[in-house]
Structure prediction request, 238 residues.
Amino acid sequence: MTPDDFENEAALVLAEYGTAHGQVTGPPVPIDDIIEEHFKLVVEFNDLRAKYPDGDVLGEIYFNEKRIVVDAGLVPEEFPAMRGRYRFTLAHELSHWRLHRHLYLRAANQPDLLPSGDARPDHVLRSRQSDPKEYQANRLASCILMPREMVKRLWHEAHGSMDPIYLDDLRLRQRQILAAEVLRRGGFKSGDDAIDNMLLEHVARPLAQKFEVSPDAMRIRLEGMTFLLRKKEPTLFA
Prediction:
């Protein structure tokens, strides 16, 4: 699938829902209603971290049963700080339903993931996976939760133009931005690109709140749409 394929598939999902239940004109995208009312999938919660002690599993999908299971640690009413992760998990599992169910319905519940006798999920979502299907589900989930045209409109409303924001410009205020981000997060995120990501997520945060996604997910979306850029390309007039 090309990047446009993901955008078009997300637009089709939202158009289908809009025709039946009312157009989605602004954020946040009602992912719960799209899943339960339009696709008629059941959403349940379970302690998946206990069920899969060797892996950080956030969600499961049972294609034949039209059932999605989300880790109990993401219940938004009990853990409001996890709402973004909860919504992305739902969108991720919906994306599996949309893109991959034909791969499983022929012999659903066959993968030997659990001891015989237990209901077997057809797919599990772990926080870190390299399966191509996981990449596809993440891409489509991002496009569903943060529709391209909606992101463009809100970016213009927030910044007064469609111009990108560059990492180099944010470095001029790095100390102040990092101090604010550490206070919000309650700590400093480690990693090779931690500082750069925190600077970019500072810009992404207001839109993340509107779309009810994590600043990390919003940052990745904005980078993919070239509203946030890490380098300024040299020009003839530089």
Observations:
- Residues 111-118 have pLDDT under 50 and may be disordered.
